[in-house]
Specification:
Length: 124
């Protein structure tokens, strides 16, 4: 899903979009003509590689996202929201989901069930 920043409503509006096996569901609104805020939950399944045996497995995810989207340089600082500066006026939700999926793939704790089990054996 793509939407022009200038077409994001000033009133909080619900949206839902998905890419592959991941759904992004939440609400967005425009705070100023150049700043949109998105609050959403990303849920679904991502194919990741086990950090121990390097075999691919499916990881279930459910992550809260709080994003500020702006087409200007964002000079403010926000603890709560991640800031995404866009070059055009287009908010590309597919891009947002893709980059979240990429960061899930890079997590150090991607360990498949088999390796988790063998870890338990070692501890006993
Ligand atoms: Zn493994």
């Amino acid at each position: 899903m793509k939407i022009e920043l200038r077409k994001v409503p000033f009133n909080k509006s619900d949206f839902e979009t998905s890419l592959n096996n991941v759904v992004m569901k939440g609400s967005f609104y425009k705070e100023t003509p150049n700043i949109a805020k998105i609050e959403a939950i990303l849920s679904g399944e991502v194919e990741v590689e086990c950090v121990k045996c390097l075999k691919p497995f499916t990881k279930k995810i459910e992550e809260k996202l709080k994003l500020i989207i702006t087409d200007r340089v964002y000079s403010g600082f926000d603890n709560e929201y991640d800031v995404i500066e866009i070059n055009s006026n287009i908010i590309d939700f597919d891009d947002i989901i893709t980059s979240e999926i990429e960061s899930v793939k890079l997590e150090y704790n991607n360990i498949c069930e088999k390796c988790k089990e063998s870890n338990l054996d070692l501890e006993i």
